[in-house]
# Entry
Amino acid sequence: MRNGRRRRGLVAVLGALATTAVVAGCAVDEPSGDTRPLPQPQADASVRQDEGAIPGETARAGVSRPDWLGSRVLPERPDGLGEVRDTPPELVDRRFPPPDAEPVADGYLATIAPVPDDVVARSTWADECPVTLDELRYLMMTFRGFDDRTYLGEMIVHRSVAEDVVWVFEQLYDARFPIEEMRVVAAGELDAPPTGDGNNTTAFVCRPITLSSSWSEHAYGLAVDINPFHNPYRRDDAVVPELASAYLDRDRDLPGMIQPGDVVTRAFADIGWGWGGDWTTLDDWMHFSRSGR
# Structure
């Protein structure tokens, strides 16, 4: 229910944002004479197959999220990660719509704005983070779900990359690349016990690098993770998310997975970002960053 209230709040705030934020391609923080209304919820919630949709690439009718997602805590390892488990059958070919979300009108639209106070309050930002609030921007972007419908997402990024990130997600939208969820990470999630089944596409998270004490590029808003469950992190015997072992087989090439030379890697390469799938010491298929780290 919390996510449902938050997403309805996102739709409600769009009108106010449209007068102060900007549409993709306009200068950050300058009012835009080309600002268009962002999409509103569709009255018809039936599954839509758009013209040009690729058969088999959208969610199967009737697939719903298991009730236990996010609730079954895993035993913790000495390194603080969860114990790696086999992927549950329900998640082996994961194609769920966003949780508690309503589809919006078709079309890619995005806004860029300073981070609103209420968003700061539910984010991971704190005074000790290595970036100031003035350096961050709040994005609202439409994305395609695994049911091929259009949904509204949110993300915090560094102001220097805001327009580039908006452009990248436009390429993903136009290519019908599916995303399960796109929301700001809450502070409480940083210390929450591991369930190993998260799949949130996000950018700014004030945290250190996994299995390190140094600040992550996410802590600066200069990195993006996409569909983490479909594109997990692997280092030695560690896997994050811990239930995503089935997606270590990159030859499966299922919807939501990122592959060398696909629309996702090409779009990020076009803005000069590096991909964790190209690393040699570990695999981080979800991760893109401006620095390449």
